[in-house]
Amino acid sequence: MASSSSTDAATSSVVERVQNFVSENKKAILLTAAAAAIGAAGVAYYASTSRPRPPLGDVEKGDGSDASSSSGKKKKSKSGKKKKSKKDDSGPILEERKPKVATVSEGTDDLDLELDAEELAALPEETRTKYAAAFKGKGNTAYTKRNFSEAADYYTKAINVTPKPEPVFYSNRAACYVNFNPPDHEKVVADCDEALKLDPNYVKALNRRAVGLEGLNRLEEALRDYTAATILDKFQNAATANAVERVLKEIATTQATELMKERRTKLPSHTFISAYFAAFRPRPELVLPVNPSQGDETLQMALGALGAANYPHALSLVNEAITQGISWDAGKAEAFNLRGTFKFLVGDIDGSKSDLQTAINIVPSSTQALVKIASVHMEQGDPAKAFECFDEAIKQNANDPDIYYHRGQVLFIMSEFSQAAENYLKSTELDDGFVFSHIQLAVAQYKSGETGESMKTFRRTLTAFPQRSEPQNYYGELLLDQGRFQEAVEKFERAIEIEKTKPSPNVLALVNKGLALFQWKQDVGAAEQCCAEALEIDPECEAAIATLAQLNLQQSKIKNAMEMFKKQAEIARTEPELINALTYQYATASQLEFLKNYPNMAAQLNALARGM
């Protein structure tokens, strides 16, 4: 929706920058890489993660080498690649590990492999160990030939005869079950359960159990295992990391769809709404008819509540006005425009489009409604239709500066910074009293690599609008991006001072100050204090909540981060925003589960995160 608001874009910008900074510099949680940051449009964009599952192990050829993936025991090959059979594309190939007791791999040719279970059980322990190795070898050979049922039978014999249970026998049999047609996921999970009872750090068994759990649609358990395998493997296995991402996406998407069906509509934070309305130039005051109806007067009250930033009351009144009936066309168009805007803000995209189109049908020259429908199309990922709306708006009134400002926003979101700058410039030429056109022009110049011109534009804007906080805040963001921390903090503090004079302050500069102090001095306490102050003013400020969550992750305060992500999910306005929040929430939950199951790994994990 930021196609309609530069300040709204700032909200997303803050969230994105804190996520990127923490991810790139600290990586307190490996899984932040799996969740896309919120884009400048206020919409979460996700890379496709539907990749085929790769093989999950190696087969030992009887040389006694250790191919274990237990934490701290993994031996790397010189090439860095795992050996594969030539015909292993359908599933995981085998992984063999050095048994914890000596395995006799020689002298098995003279063994009678046709002995029954009773006869085998009567053999001495050393001989039974030899038989187990022999059955395992037969199983490996059968598996290489893709005779998975035969291979499973041999591994079963190895399991039955061995005097001491070996996790690899169960894991290899699970690999056979994975390759059955159809796969026997229940048996995969059962065998991996046994393997992991014997060795909880057995990474290949964790991966295979995750595959089985995913096949059974037990996705949260699959995420638990993929996460554990990724951490135990010290984040070196790209295939497992991709599996984490894939399962996270599926869980979050499914959950978001269900939650959105049940969710009651709710206005976003005061900061968010104010940012949206501030992105449009003030409109002439609506003049009521000589003999206004009750609906006309209620509409006037709604517009008054809007001007006073009492957004819940404005929404209630405009709904009431439409129900009561409005007597003249301009008033009807204004009412549907306003209600359509509120529907957009609560995430009712179809309802918003319907109301805005009604406003246009009543008054075709309603360029603001056309611009807002363009925002709806951008929310739905359809920039072509958005540009059609801008073209139609220009036909209706080519001198409306808001058209060019918002078209610039769409181009900015699409990273067409030079074209965006042209539109911002056109907007300022038509009306140079709108601060956001100047700010966005400077930001577009900066994004285009014209740093000098950008700074000049900002300085002119600061001079022209000395009592506006937005130029101070945005200029601070650019200074922060350049690593000029002290100057950035000074700009944020000036913006905060200006906002404190308002009845309902915008808190983004507070969040930005906290982030700047964190990046500059690693002062987590000061950063948290800034976010806490922001939330005292606006308890549902998305940027403050997201920043606190990431700061908690940076300090390995996983439970605290989890609560922040839950809150972020609660206030998510649209399904993509909810997916983004749930992705972080479930990623964090899986790490909590890991620390519960592997408490001795907590210190190592923290050290590893700090070193990434």
What does this protein look like?
The chain is mostly helical. The chain has helices spanning 6-25, 117-121, 125-144, 148-161, 167-178, 185-198, 203-215, 219-232, 238-262, 270-278, 294-307, 311-324, 329-345, 349-362, 367-379, 383-396, 401-413, 417-430, 435-447, 451-464, 469-481, 485-499, 508-521, 524-537, 542-554, 558-571, 575-597, 602-611. The longest helix is centred in the middle third of the chain and has 25 residues, at 238-262. Residues 86-99 have a biased composition (Basic and acidic residues). The chain crosses the membrane at residues 28-47.
In a nutshell, what does this entry contain?
Keywords: Membrane, Mitochondrion, Mitochondrion outer membrane, Receptor, Repeat, TPR repeat, Transmembrane, Transmembrane helix. This protein has 612 residues and is mainly α.
Quaternary structure annotation: single chain
What is the percent of helical residues?
55-70%
SSE topology string: HHHHHHHHHHHHHHHHHHHHHHHHHHHH
Q: How much beta, percentage-wise?
A: under 5%
Distance between the termini: 34 Å
Mean pLDDT value: 82
Report the strand count: 0
Structural class: mainly alpha
Characterize the main sheet: none
The coarse silhouette is elongated
- Count of discrete alpha- or pi-helical segments spanning 4 or more residues: 28
Question: Are there runs of 5+ residues with pLDDT below 50, and where?
Answer: 1-12, 14-92, 100-107
Instruction: Return Rg in Å.
Output: 31 Å
